[in-house]
Amino acid sequence: MADAATNPVTSTLERLVTGGGVLCDGAMGTMLLARGFELELCYEELNLSRPEMVANIHSAYLLAGAEMVKTNTFGANVFRLQRHGLHARVAEINRAGVQLARACALQSGGVCVAGSVGPLGVRAEPAEARAAFAEQVRGLAGVDLLMIETMMSLEEAAEAMGAAHDVAPELRLVVTMTVDQAGNCLDGTTPEAAAARLTELGADVVGCNCGLGPESVLRAVERMRTATRLPLAALPSAGLPRTVNGRGMGPVSPEEMASWTRRLAQAGASLIGGCCGTTPAHVRAMRVALEG
Questions:
Q1: pLDDT tens for each residue of 218-275
Q2: CA 83, chain centre distance (Å)
Q3: Residue 145 belongs to what H/E stretch?
Q4: Which CATH code is given to the segment(s) 20-291?
Q5: 267-278 burial, b for 16+ CB within 10 Å, e for fewer?
Q6: pTM more than 0.85
Q7: Considering the chain, what is the average pLDDT of its residues?
Q8: In sequence order, which residues have a C-beta less than 8 Å from that of residue 84 and are 6 or more positions away?
Q9: Where are the beta strands (DSSP E) in 24-179?
Q10: Which end of the chain, N or C, is less packed with Cβ atoms under 10 Å?
């Protein structure tokens, strides 16, 4: 096996866990929405029916400078897929997501592929939740690490991590919570308590993603820094439409995101990327900000 000096994936993972800067990609769902796919569709199923579209988005982020690409599997668990009559295709959809992301990564010189695992979307008993997460993680075999993201409750995050440790103990875990306007996790847990608990449970990187935009993620990450020595992840959304000086404004622009990127890095975030509403243009601006 090549060492970190010659293997770009190993080198990137090493930088990630030692607190060096790594740039992740941005949104997948809102990019598909912008391409005309209706919100009611199962976007994860597009790994099978429209693989070229998913691959084009992966490639656009990699061309923009991303060093890590997430699989299009955020909602590829049995509960979310059941809404579309796809509950028997969990493994197939996850495997296809890995294959698409890996092919694009190899074409870009071997960047990291992170297996995206989102919340279940239902209230499930702990044993049911762990079984559902385990099924998805098995389907994600072949990724370089797992990204358990947009977790809305610490309890659910714990079951996802337990499943990952059971099924793929060799994989590093990035675990990110999402926060409300007050800066707390959606189950009321503070960022400090969440960071401490995720550290105890064996995460390799902890942090925050999505939220109400980069400001809410920045505040959460700053608070998490006080409770853990682990590397931090910050992947904010592009925010919500807002009013500035009486005028309606769209979400955060790539230029604004670049400014927030510098602040996230200064706050100690070593894995930085985007969530809902971010595009390759945002990632390109973030790349420039990090290099600057």
A1: 999 999 999 999 999 999 999 866 554 555 445 899 999 999 999 999 999 999 999 9
A2: 22
A3: strand 145-151
A4: 3.20.20.330
A5: bebbbbbbbbbb
A6: yes
A7: 94
A8: 42, 45
A9: 68-70, 112-117, 145-151, 172-177
A10: N
